[in-house]
Specification:
It is built from seven helices and five strands. By secondary structure, the chain is α/β, with parallel strands linked by helices. The chain has a single domain, classed as Methylglyoxal synthase-like domain (Rossmann fold, 3-Layer(aba) Sandwich), CATH 3.40.50. Strand 4, helix 5 and strand 5 form a beta-alpha-beta unit. Helix 1 crosses helix 3 and helix 4 packs parallel to helix 5. Its EC number is 4.2.3.3.
């Protein structure tokens, strides 16, 4: 079971809901996290159970970022709206930076989300289970 975060900017929420609905069978065996409204919208349209954090601008991106920093997130689908300025842009950049630092796959558009989801369905993320198995404790 992997930890997967789902984040979508306002103009990408419908796209996220449609995508997750199409791949509900892939995501149902995993622990799902999402920022506020995105998580609510997905749960309203699927049978998936999602742990919801705050809305992105209110700290949800940072809450997910904390899990990434602790290497507790296995992959993220973050459908960003590159044509709209975001008031919490520094939080977004920080989250993407943490993904790069920790080597966490992060899809920022639907094409990459499709590739990562198909890889998840094939079992290509089994290496993440080893990361968790051999994660050193805090000393």
């Amino acid at each position: 079971m992997l930890n997967i975060a789902l984040i979508a900017h306002d103009r990408k929420k419908d796209e996220m809901v449609n995508f997750i609905t199409a791949y509900e069978h892939v995501f149902e065996g995993h622990k799902l996290y999402a920022t506020g409204t995105t998580g609510t919208r997905i749960m309203e349209n699927t049978k998936l159970n999602i742990h919801r954090f705050m809305s992105g601008p209110l700290g949800g991106d940072q809450q997910i970022g904390a899990m990434v920093a602790e290497n507790e997130m296995d992959f993220i689908i973050f459908l960003r709206d590159p044509l709209m300025a975001q008031p919490h842009e520094p939080d977004i950049i920080a989250l993407l930076r943490l993904c790069d630092v920790q080597g966490i796959p992060c899809a920022t558009n639907i094409a990459t989300a499709e590739l990562l989801t198909r890889a998840l369905d094939r079992g290509d993320f089994a290496w993440r289970e080893l990361v968790h198995k051999y994660k050193p404790g805090i000393e």
